[in-house]
Protein: Acid ceramidase
Amino acid sequence: TLERLHDALLKSPLSAVKAKYRRAQCRSGMYPPKGPTFKGAVTWYTVNLDLPPAKRWTDVMSDKKDDVSVSSRGKSRHDGLFSEFGVSACLGQPLLLDTLPFPFNEEIRGISAASGVPLGEVLLFNIFYEVFTACTSVVAEDSNGHLFHARNLDFGLFMGWDVRNKSWLMTEKLRPLVVNVDFQRNNKTVFKSTSFAGYVGMLTGIHPHAFTLTMNERFSLDGGYIGIMEWILGKRDGMWMSFLTRSVLENATSYEEAKQKLSQTKLLAPAYFILGGNQTGQGCVITRSRVLSLDIWELDRTLGRWYVLETNYDHWKEPLFLDDRRTPAMKCMNQTTRANISPKTLYDVLSTKPVLNKLTTYTTLMDVSEGRLESYIRDCPDPCMPW
Structure:
C-alpha cells in the first residue's frame, strides 16, 4: 500500500511541477529588489530596553495596531487547530501568561493594552510560531573569509487558501506586520531583528559584529504541541524557542557563547538554529530535539564546505520530495560559487522558485562584520508553488 501511495504521489501533477522547478534556471539580477516579487522595504522601529517591558512596544503598536488586530482575528478563526489537542481554551486564558518568563509576559500585556487586541489573542499570536513555520536559511563564507547570513521566512501553510488571489490567507495578513527592530540600551544598539509587530520572540536577528541567528522549524512527532501541553500541565523546564533566540541575541556576546546556549538549553519544540559568526569557519546548523542537540553541521574549509543551508529537514536525510526547497537552493549556491557570494547573489538564490513560494513573507540579508540587516517583503506571482 505504501509503495502504491508513493508511486501515485510521484505521478501527481504537483510532483511534476516540483521536478520542473528543480531543473529551473537560478535567478539573477534580482537585487536591488524590484518587480512583482518585491512588495516593499521593511520599516525600522526602535525598542528601548531601558523602558519597563509593558511600554517597550508602544510606538510599534501605535503604527501597526490595525494590522495586528486584523491578523489576530484571522488567527482566532483557526482555533480548531488547537482545540483538536485540547488546549484552545487554555491558550485563550490570561492565566497562562503568568507562567511565561519575564520580560516576555509583560511585553505581551503591553502589546495587548496598546493595540486593543484581547490578551488571549496576543498570547496565541506569540506562541503560534512554535509549531507552524517553514523557512530557508543559509550562512556562507566568501573567498576572503567574509561571512553572510540570509533567510526566507515562510508562514501560513494550511491556514486557509484564497482561491481568488491564489495565496495563503495568513501569509497575506502577516506581510503588513513585518517590521525591523533596533533593540537599544543606553541609546546603543544591542541587536537588530526582523519580526512581526505584536510578536516578542525573535526568528531572525543580528548581534552586530558578533553573530547572526535564524530559527527554522524542525518537523517531528515529538513536536511543539507536546511541549506546549507539558507547559500547560505544569512541566516548565524547557524554553520557548523564540524566547531563547531573543535571549541569545540580547545577552550572548560571541558566536561560541551563542552556540553553547542554543545547543544545550532544553526546548518546548524541536528546531534548527542557523548561526553565523564573525570569523572564518564560524557558521553552523544546530539540529535540536526538544532535549538534545542531535547534530552541529559546521562550515569546513578543508572539506570545501563554504556554506551551510537549512530548510526544514535534517541535512543528512533527503527532504520530502513534495517540499524540496533544498535542492534548487543548493544548485544555485553552487552555481554562484564562493568567489561570487554576496548579499546580492544570496538574494538571487532566495528569489529562485520554489525557494521563493506562496508562503514567503520576507527575505532578510545580514552582514555581521558591517552590522547590517536589511529585509524585504516578498510575493511570488504565478506561476509559483504553494510552498
Observations:
- Confidence is low (pLDDT under 50) at residues 75-92.
